[in-house]
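> call design_seq(struct)
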């Protein structure tokens, strides 16, 4: 056999060996990396907030992420947090920078086509925060008003559907972060700050009020890539266990949700 044929056979053998190499599943890849990368909110009091005094993340979803890391590694500190918004969390998960999202990510049928969601760990509803002096008591009073919402959030659709149902004409301004919406409300750029009520609670002050109106129940789930089936099943098992044994209800109570 000449040298050329030997080289061809060696290349073919190498290709076959590479093709037969065992695929590393997402859950094993995380274990091998030794750290869990989680996208969280940095501007939602009680859920995910970056404490600027300590430079540490605090909140209900932060503790959930730490519990997952503890179960994985036996060490709750082996989790790396990345701040995300409603607009950035999906792309950061898609490109592999994050393993999971725990960031008030609402479960919808449309989103289930793109991502895996755990069993819901919290249920909320879209609400409206207004200035007390504005004289707005319900959505019915919002004709001609401007509603401030987060980019890529479900709030806009929920409020628009409710407004259409009662024949109220409204407009929207979209913002990247919740603090920006609150500033816009305080300055009069928008008349209403709309997002899930538990999030609005973190922005409530002496000059504002959360209206009684509630729209479109929002179930939050821990989110992973659609292909990460082993990781999704693992996380879902943990969430189900912690719901049943009282761990999650205790955290909800701890953070006043």
């Amino acid at each position: 056999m000449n040298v050329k044929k030997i080289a061809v056979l060696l290349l073919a053998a190498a290709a076959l060996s590479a093709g037969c190499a065992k695929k590393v599943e997402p859950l094993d890849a995380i274990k091998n990396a030794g750290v869990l990368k989680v996208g969280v909110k940095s501007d939602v009091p009680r859920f995910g907030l970056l404490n600027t005094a300590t430079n540490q993340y605090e909140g209900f979803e932060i503790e959930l992420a730490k519990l997952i890391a503890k179960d994985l590694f036996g060490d709750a500190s082996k989790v790396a947090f990345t701040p995300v918004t409603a607009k950035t969390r999906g792309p950061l998960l898609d490109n592999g920078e994050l393993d999971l999202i725990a960031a008030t990510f609402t479960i919808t049928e449309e989103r289930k086509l793109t991502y895996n969601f755990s069993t819901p760990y919290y249920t909320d509803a879209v609400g409206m925060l207004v200035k007390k002096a504005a004289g707005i008591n319900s959505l019915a009073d919002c004709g001609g008003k401007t509603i401030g919402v987060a980019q890529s959030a479900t709030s806009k659709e929920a409020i628009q559907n409710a407004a259409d149902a009662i024949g109220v004409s409204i407009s929207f301004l979209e913002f990247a972060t919740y603090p920006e919406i609150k500033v816009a409300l305080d300055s009069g750029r928008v008349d209403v700050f709309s997002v899930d009520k538990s999030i609005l609670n973190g922005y409530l002050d002496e000059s504002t009020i959360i209206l009684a109106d509630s729209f479109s129940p929002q179930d939050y789930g821990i989110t992973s890539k659609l292909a990460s089936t082993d990781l999704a099943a693992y996380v879902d098992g943990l969430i189900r266990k912690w719901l049943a044994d009282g761990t999650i209800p205790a955290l909800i109570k701890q953070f006043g949700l």
